Amino acid sequence: MFRQVGIFKAGVVAGWFPALPRVAAGVAVLAFAAAAPPAQAQDRPLAADFAEVYRAGGVGAPDWALFSRPGPVGFDGSGNLYVLDTAAPQVVAIGPDGQAISVVGRAGEGPGEFDLPSGLVVWRDGRFAVLDAGHNAMHLFGADGWFQRMVRWSARPGSPLSVFAQVGRVMRPDPTGSGIFAQGAMDAMGDIIGAVDQLAGAEPEPRVGVDERGVELIDLSGDLVAATPIMQGWRAPRRLPVDRITADDLRNNANLVEATSAPMFFDPQFHWDLLPDRTIAYSDSSAYLIWLRRPDGTVREVIRRAIQPVVVDGDIRSAMIEWEIGRLRRNSEQMNAATDDPELRAVMSTWDESRRERVENREFFGEVPVIRAIRATWDGALWVQRRGEEPWDDQGPIDVFGRDRQYLGTFPAGTTEMPLAFGPDGLVAFWELDELDVPSIVVKRLPVEVR
């Protein structure tokens, strides 16, 4: 949730931990590390007047466009947009004219039927795959929309936890193959899976590969998913010990939120996307520093802007704690309003007190990270979203770098969101909610200079 800053990887912040990134040997970053902090960069404003191509959904839409909630989307090379409606559940393919081409899938246990679908990957030739926790598998479909086969995520039948670990992780189709580049599973999810295995009397599966701060290449050619680690990002060290979830925590019906260490405020997150030539663009520190790494591990280049992270002082600490407590209080009020059970309300009240104490004692990273999101366009430009006015605000300005990696300009905060998907010929897709929270998918076309 929090990320951005530039002092950490260039040296030491607050005098208590090292900041050098984990990069391939031979990468020339020493000059950057030794240089004095540059002056703050000036933004070159860009106009976000994107032409609307079509919209689908909302009140009164045809049956195929009655989307229940915003879900994952992706374009193919012909400009067709694929939308996963997780509640229906089905995949709707929409042509460049805004009309439905096909509707694929339904709830069920058979081939091509879905049970708890959550992820969608679309290849440029029109093939697509759906991540399905209920089936513990990826459903593969051909460019004609016909179901081809399922690839199991785990060798253990009836255990969807391994695929649940991928829910919310970024997945991108291999532009030149049939595999998937995917962010690793959450480290804490590995603890839960291992604890569940122990409770069931099974030997925990060995934890291999990358965690949520890395990228792996997933091979779908067999009956079982096979993952090859590609790169592992930097993780900020912590001063306080990190608690891990154990089988005893589950056995004693412990609250898993209480059983694990609270995340560090402003812990630099791992942001990444995949360029058309299979280069991984990523940020893993608080600095405005984006690495372009090839799948073989070599770093192609580094993108920087002279935008410095903010050092966390007492005022920022107090404001962040107050904001987080307010967020938890609002969530609790919504949960209380949804139940009349006095016992459940008493339990939630106890949790509120415990969570407040955890927030007040939570560890802080020494800087407020700058970068909050990275997206690659269809043609290979990069969009980089920065923090907003407040340290916790992820919806800040969006910088655009061309295919030559030169800075083109910045969309000011509030003028556009980061697109959900980029397509050919400048197509981009967004979700919009009306006053009744009914979703519509909106497709627009970008000007040539920011594609």
Description:
- The protein is an alpha+beta fold.
- Helix content is 16%, strand content 29%.
- It contains 7 helices and 28 strands.
- The strands form 8 sheets. A 4-stranded antiparallel beta sheet has the order 3-28-27-26, with no helix packed on it. The chain has a 4-stranded antiparallel beta sheet with strand order 4-5-6-7, with no helix packed on it.
- The model is unreliable at 1-37 (pLDDT under 50).
> Structural class per helix/strand content?
alpha+beta
Low-pLDDT segments, ≥5 res: 1-37
Indicate the percent of residues in helices: 10-25%
Radius of gyration: 23 Å
Q: What does the average pLDDT come to?
A: 84
- Rounded to the nearest angstrom, the distance between the terminal CA atoms is 27 Å
Number of helices: 7
Please list the strands of the largest sheet in the order they lie side by side.
3-28-27-26
